[in-house]
Amino acid sequence: MPLKHPLAAFVVASFLAGCAVGPDYVRPEMPLPQRYLGESAVDQRQATAQADLVTWWTGFGDPQLTRFVTLALEQNLDLAQASARVAQARAGLGAANAALLPSGNVSGQAARAYQSVETPLGQALNSTPGFDRYGNAYEANAGASWELDMFGGLRRGREAALAEYQASEAGAAATRLTVAAQTADIYISIRGLQTRLDVARRQVQTQQDLLSSINLLYAKGLAAELQVRQAEGALAQVRATVPALEAGLDAAMNALDVMLGAPPGTHRSDLADAGAIPVAPRIGAIRSPGDLLRRRPDLIVAERRLAASNARIGVAIAEYYPKLSLGGLIGSATAVSGGNLFNGNASQSAGVLGLRWRLFDFGRINAQIDLAKGQEAEMLAAYRLAVLRATEDVENAFSALVNREEQASVLTQGMDSLGRARGASFAAYQKGAVSLIEVLQADENLLRAADAQAQARTESTRAAVAVFKALGGGWQPDEPGSMAIK
User: Fold this and answer.
1) Which of 58, 62, 326, 448 could form a disulfide with 278 if both were Cys (CB 3.0 to 4.6 A apart)?
2) pTM for the full model?
3) Nearest to 328 by CA among 294, 354, 304
4) Cβ distance 235 to 179 under 8 Å?
5) How far apart are CA 320 and CA 427, in angstroms?
6) For residue 219, how far is the Cα from the chain centroid?
7) Alpha carbon distance 447, 246 (integer Å)
């Protein structure tokens, strides 16, 4: 049956056409190199194990590390906050979806009124035969309304809400990566501090033995008092390093407990026995810099926020156009008795075609559009900057990993030489061939080298954690395109 009313035809045609004002979103192109600068050096590393990006922490071969990371991913309170933000964004998406659908309501009421004869109306009615000062009223209605999204403002709002929801999901994945990396980093720092403490305590014992030997020689008149005081000063210097390392170890253990969502001291007994510094594994699949756009959740967050800001331009532009809505009411009302409520004589109905048009408010609409475009330009720059910084993170992590491992290797070789030099100097001192100063210098050099070696090993393993984080390891992204607006 043809439509007889031009306005109705226009409404139906516009709605069925599904047009939506504003720019359609296109993911921006990012020119990135095919390979990382430090990729070849990382590939040439010698490592006994290999780690997959999804569960990279298991590749370190340390059960304690794996256990703590697993606990953190289950109990961390930053992750709990991220999950709550996802729930909020999901609710916002639900509201945007609901705005596209008709809304309905049912209402009803029953009232009983009493009319006093002391009022003017009551006095007038009191002279009427059969006047009843008590009156009843009943009403029941069902209503519905629907805003016709002819120009796509509501659909653009849904696009923005969907993009924000996807950004919140990616943000939760980014938080997961950060929690896993920070937990592993703190654990490795703890093992490094324990190693350094062991070095310092062994050096304290060595200095105490040396002081005992000098005191014995001094008692026999074979050593000067100056040598005794020098040995005491060297022992005090070594002892002074222990409290600083213990304070750092306490702080690291407390930080680990907080990462696990527990009060400080909860897991300290699990770390009472010093363990070895974990050895960094090989990276299973580095891939190309372009893969970061899908692999790193923080880049997905930036891209989805860009998509949301693009959709909000359409929401603002839609305010230029009129908004039509359909409304209807069907119900029944009576003022006699509830038994007559649904009789035909008590029925009531209404149909409404609503129009709202900000015809003389284009100045404000222009400002809103300019604001939305400015926000979109800001999000575009933020996305491009995030991509550049992500590639910078990877390159810096590659460089730190390779160079720290080289540093640790060189220091290990130096440790062997300095250990032999210290033994030779002490033997020469006992024979009177060298002074105590040479022995103390050899001890100091050995301590510094051992401490530097422990730090280098710790930093090289921490650099490996930074590599896995920079590459977006720690989660399994969906198939390409799954984060696009649907």
Assistant:
1) 62
2) 0.82
3) 354
4) no
5) 93
6) 66
7) 17
Are 192 and 458 spatial neighbours (Cβ–Cβ below 8 Å)?
A: yes
Amino acid at 145: S
- Contact criterion met (CB below 8 Å) for 30 and 252: no
Alpha-helix residue ranges (DSSP H) falling in 291-361: 292-295, 297-317
Distance CA 414, CA 197 (A): 20
| The token pair that represents 157 in the structure block | 């709002």
Tokens of 173: 């994945």
* Local structure of 329: helix, strand or coil: strand
Mean of the per-residue pLDDT values of the chain: 83
pLDDT at 427 over 90: no
- Please spell the DSSP secondary structure of 155-208, one letter per residue: HHHHHHHHHHHHHHHHHHHHHHHHHHHHHHHHHHHHHHHHHHHHHHHHHHHHHH
Residue 17: is its pLDDT beyond 60?
no
Q: What is the DSSP letter of 238?
A: H
Contact 307, 25 (CB under 8 A): yes
Give tens-digit pLDDT for 154-211: 899 999 999 999 999 999 999 999 999 999 999 999 999 999 999 888 888 878 877 8
Q: What is the C-alpha separation between 35 and 286, in angstroms, rounded?
A: 9
Distances (CA, A) of 73 to 67, 88, 203, 437, 439: 10, 21, 39, 53, 50
Q: Phi/psi of residue 471, each to 5°?
A: -80, -5
Pick the closest to residue 178 from 466, 477, 400, 394 (CA basis). 466
Beta carbons within 10 angstroms of residue 156's beta carbon = 26
**330 pLDDT higher than 50:** yes
Q: Is 443 exposed, middle or buried (0-12, 13-18, 19+ CB in 10 A)?
A: buried
Return the SS3 of 87: helix
CB atoms inside a 10 Å sphere around CB 387: 23
- The percent of the chain in helix, strand and coil, each rounded to the nearest 5, is 65, 10, 25
Rounded-to-integer distance, Cα 200 and Cα 240, Å: 9
Query: With the CA atoms of 158, 161, 162 and 164 taken in that order, what torsion angle do they form, in degrees rounded to the nearest 10?
Result: 160
Bridge partners (DSSP) listed for residue 146: 326
Distances (CA, A) of 324 to 100, 159, 354, 362: 13, 21, 5, 18
Domains of the chain: 18-100+149-321+363-470 (1.20.1600.10), 105-148+323-356 (2.20.200)
Q: Which residue has the tokens 């720092």?
A: 189
- The residue among 257 and 412 whose pLDDT is bigger is 257
> Quick one: which H or E segment has residue 51?
strand 50-51
Query: What is the distance of C-alpha 13 from the center of its chain?
Result: 45
pLDDT of residue 484: 41
d(CA 219, CA 461): 49
Instruction: For residues 461-477, give the mean pLDDT.
Output: 89
